[in-house]
Each structure stands twice: as structure tokens, then as C-alpha cells.
């Protein structure tokens, strides 16, 4: 693994430190009035998600890790694992739902996702920012509601709940944000 000086760290770099993989979130160079300068680095554990702040002397070296960023296609969910396929090698990888997080609810057959891997182990899965889904249940419109600011509850085909405008009815396809599960717009397909 290549070693780099702590002063050269940038947000987004991944390091191996204390036998863990850490992503650099922020780096600040501090020059106190007395003593040598140091780099104060905010890190996030890629496997556990914990945050930490470390101080490195400016000439201290750290081990930078290269991650593989692969585009893979979602195939199916089996229990708590999602199975993805590399479109180039047709190799299949099972990723735990814990690694994917809440966006796992929005995975659809054939969806292409970005998977960050280290030595063949998936560390994170990035799914598209929005998906098109069908509303399978929508509350009736209450008379007197204005369309500009009122929303009503609805249920999506994946079982998730979403607040939708009064004009959306059962059977309508809508675009949903995968980050927070909110309504974006009526689907154009």
C-alpha cells in the first residue's frame, strides 16, 4: 500500500489506521504558537460507521488504501443479503442489508449500483438517487384541502409509506428519493 504524508490527506481518501479502514471527512492544518504543526483529521470507520478525530505530525506517513469502485447489477434479495452481479465478469457478490442501509428498501431487479470494495469485500453500496414506484394504497382526498400545501399518506409497492399530493391515486407511478423516501414527482413512464 502506498504511504503518503499526513499533510497530503484530502477528504475522500481511505486509510488503514489502527487495523481499520477509515475515510477522511475533513483535514485541518494547525500551527500552534509553540511546537510543530500538525494535521487534525476527522475520520469515519468504513465498516463500523464510528467517527474519530486523529492528530498526525505533518511529516508522519499514513497508509493510503486503494478501493475498487465497481458498477454492479442487483439480482435478488435472499433473507438479509442482496445479491449483485458484475456485468463484466458475471461474478456474483452477496452484500448484507446492514452495509446497504435504509436504501435497500428501494432496490429493484436489474438496478445498476456502485459498490465500493476492498480486497473483494463490499464496504458500501450507492444506489441511484431516485426510483420509480407504484402507489398501491392512497387515502381519499379530504374536501376543502388545498392542493398547494397538503399531502396525504400513501403506501408504495415495496411496503414503504410516503406523503403524496392529493392528486395521486392508487395505481399511479411516482418518482421517490432513495435518500429519504420522499415524493419527488409523478413518473413519466
Tags for this entry?
six-stranded antiparallel beta sheet, 189 residues, mainly beta, single chain
Lay out the secondary structure:
Blueprint: E1 3-5, E2 14-17, E3 20-30, E4 38-45, E5 51-57, E6 61-64, E7 68-78, E8 81-86, E9 92-96, H1 97-100, E10 112-118, E11 121-126, E12 130-138, E13 152-156, E14 161-164, E15 173-177, E16 183-186
Antiparallel strand pairs: 1-6, 2-3, 2-6, 3-4, 4-5, 7-8, 7-10, 8-9, 10-11, 12-13, 12-15, 13-14, 15-16
Overall description:
- With 189 residues, the chain is mainly β.
- It is built from one helix and 16 strands.
- The protein has one helix at 97-100, and strands at 3-5, 14-17, 20-30, 38-45, 51-57, 61-64, 68-78, 81-86, 92-96, 112-118, 121-126, 130-138, 152-156, 161-164, 173-177, 183-186.
- It has a six-stranded antiparallel sheet with strand order 1-6-2-3-4-5, with no helix packed on it.
- It is elongated and about 70 Å long.
- The protein starts with a strand and ends with a strand.
- The model has no long low-confidence stretch (mean pLDDT 86).
The helix-and-strand class reads: mainly beta
Q: Number of DSSP helices?
A: 1
Low-confidence stretches: none
Largest sheet: 6 strands, antiparallel
Taking strands numbered 1, 2, ... along the chain, how are they ordered across the largest sheet? 1-6-2-3-4-5
Whole-Å distance between the termini? Answer: 47 Å
Q: What does the overall shape look like?
A: elongated
Order of helices and strands: EEEEEEEEEHEEEEEEE
Portion of residues within helices: under 10%
Share of residues in strands: over 45%
Any idea what the radius of gyration is? 22 Å
The mean pLDDT is: 86
Q: How many beta-strand segments?
A: 16
